[in-house]
Amino acid sequence: MSGRYTLEELLAVDLAHTIEDGEVGFTGLATGKAATTYITCIPMAAMELAQRTHAPNLTILLSGVYFNPDIAKLHTLPESEYEQVLVDLPSEAQMPGWPEQWHHRAGDISFGFGSGVQVDREGNLNSTCIGNVRHPKVELVGPIFLPEHFSCFGREYIMMPNHERRSFVEKVDYISGVGWPGGAEGRRKLGFTGGGPKYIYTPKCIFSFDEEGIIHLKSIHPGVSKQDVIDSTGFSIPNIADDIPTTPEPTDEELLILREQADPNGIFLGKS
Prior knowledge:
Number of domains: 1
Mean pLDDT: 91
CATH superfamily: Glutaconate Coenzyme A-transferase
């Protein structure tokens, strides 16, 4: 990785490029350093960057409560959506009781972010347990809001803090968020008219899913080899091109906006 930017900045800038003007993006507040970085910090930095560049009409919805909060005024990262530092933060709107923040219709939210300990080639995500759900080896946090993300949101970004074979598996032990089982036709049979995972962001690469639900290796981060990605993935990656693009490096202007406007206090991506 270049000394000019961090991995987190690389991911945030690339993610920002996928956001369109006028969309509504949802992310929550995670716990645990790795999960927080990938579920909260990188997404928030990306949305803030997009809003300050090509998507001024993007609506950032934090934890289902805060609409376009003035994140630049935060000096610490809250662990709960009801911490006083967030309640006091200027926002376009705060709606903790409307309509119960976990009630969304399909189409209300353009995209969201989810993570887990396992993901498979179909984009099914597991955040519930390791092993048989009736007799798990390890119990995890549970599905939380993943069923709604994967069924009602326009698209889902799967954010994986670790890229290793035990995390990228042939078949997840439990489906917390439904990806593309049986491809696009499989989602239709389940009653899903849209949505589903669109991208997987990892410390090594970015995967994408096409309209039929087939996974592709979209890009490999600078300094990472294609063989490293293959060796770190527990399922066979289909249709790998001979020449996989390198994830584009952030421009100096994008880094300046990230560091001085989107995240001036370094609570999301740290101080550079």
